[in-house]
Amino acid sequence: MLVALDQPPVRVRNIGADVAVGxxxxxxxxxxxxxxxxxxxxAFVRRASFEGNRAEAHTIAANIxxxxxxxxxxxxxxxxxxxxxxxxxxxxxxRPVVVLTKTDLVPDVDATVxxxxxxxxxxxxxxxSGISGDGVEALRSYAAGNATxxxxxxxxxxxxxxxxxxxxxxxxxxxxxxxxxxxxRHTTTACELIRLVEGGWLIDTPGVRAxxxxxxxxxxxxxxxxxxxxxxxxxxxxxxxxxxxDCAVTAAIADGLLDVKRLDSMKRLVAEExxxxxxxxxxxxxLDRRGVRxxxxxx
Length: 299
Fold this sequence. Notes:
Elements: E1 25-27, E2 34-37, E3 43-47, E4 57-62, E5 66-72, H1 79-92, E6 95-101, H2 110-117, E7 124-127, H3 136-140, E8 148-153, H4 159-167, E9 192-195, E10 201-204, H5 219-223, H6 225-231, H7 248-254, H8 260-289
Parallel strand pairs: 5-6, 5-8, 6-7, 8-10
Antiparallel strand pairs: 1-2, 3-4, 9-10
């Protein structure tokens, strides 16, 4: 189903068209089928979760201006997950913003804010509560100028409650999280584009447990800007940051200026992206041998 500005919803089939929530499309006069997907200025893409289709891309949403990466203050800060989300967000072409929810349930937020700020160089880290309304107006301001905001996070982090607060009414169904591990049930089962009363658009996405990379740009360099800045000062251009002399990265770790876990995380993500690119090349060769040419998604 497609929604046009100030027009009633139109149900159109997208057979043969790679369409994601947020896309602008052209359909035929009979309003039966999408004929063309217009150029995307951004696209939030991850690796397909289906094991038999791991070298395929899954576009979660398109034409986003701001990606809000939602984490809950009621759970321990997950720096490694946030790093992955930031890689995807920077690669999407949208601006990432980190949002920590449920301030109404936590008396002290400073430690969690600091922990996630450490792995989000140059990114706004905000706090909010969909229940009390704390911080909601600041989040809504990111939709100024008719911008589109997308929310991404695991189940149970308070996305649906936050959507209701941003929209101004109880549009989304919410559910309690489990006491043991603070995981929630999927109350959002599909991406949805919602118009904000004061202008702008909001895309809510289903809870994402596995954040799988999809190589498409320079997301790793942006997400690990602090590490890459140090790498520029290493003695050797091909420094592996292990035991090479005059390595600025290992020196920063020794001085307590960089967490070794962050360097290890970056190396794992670089290796994961390289392995994915190898899978993609192998799949393309296999398709070429069979004479199959896959149409590329609009970007």
